Amino acid sequence: VQENSGKVSKKTSGHSFFRKHSEKIPLELSVYELSARHDVRDLVVKTLLTYLELEGILQPTGAIYTQYKFQPQRPSAEILGRFNPARAKFIGDIFRQSKAGKTWFSIDVAQAALTLAQPILSPSKQ
């Protein structure tokens, strides 16, 4: 699923749920991974998740974004100059993890978090 708002595009490959009958233990699922692993269409997996939600077995908590694409409107130095040194270093590190395309920069969230030794917060923890 791709969501595009302004100069930032987000791509999601998963959704976050709570299992209602097991003390709200978080469960993160990728519709596309389940679809590929079990050789069924993603619409079938989405329909199954919908039925589980309607039956009260799962409670959705949000989407998990795995990739962002962005188009900077200002030079990096100008953007970084607006932050305190520690925050500017962190944002600069994120920029360095991004790959430049023809028009957009893209960043793989999981890979950047791993490289920068930063946790990824699921929607239920934000």
Give a written overview of the molecule:
The chain is of the alpha+beta class and 126 residues long. The protein is built from five helices and six strands; from the N terminus they run βββααβααββα. Strands 1, 2, 3, 4, 5 and 6 form a six-stranded antiparallel beta sheet that branches. A hairpin with a 2-residue loop joins β1 and β2. The longest helix is centred in the middle third of the chain and has 13 residues. It is elongated.
Largest sheet: 6 strands, antiparallel
**Strand percent estimate:** 25-35%
- Helix percentage: 25-40%
Tally of DSSP β-strands: 6
- Counting DSSP H or I runs of 4 or more residues, the number of helices is 5
Give the integer mean of the pLDDT values: 80
Question: Structural class of the helix and strand makeup?
Answer: alpha+beta
How does the overall form come out from the CA principal axes? elongated
- Helix and strand sequence: EEEHHEHHEEH
Radius of gyration: 18 Å
Topology:
Elements: E1 2-5, E2 8-19, E3 25-29, H1 31-38, H2 42-54, E4 58-70, H3 76-80, H4 85-97, E5 99-100, E6 105-108, H5 109-116
Antiparallel strand pairs: 1-2, 2-3, 2-4, 4-6, 5-6
Short description, anyone?
By secondary structure, this protein is α+β, with helices and mostly antiparallel strands. The protein has helices at 31-38, 42-54, 76-80, 85-97, 109-116, and strands at 2-5, 8-19, 25-29, 58-70, 99-100, 105-108.
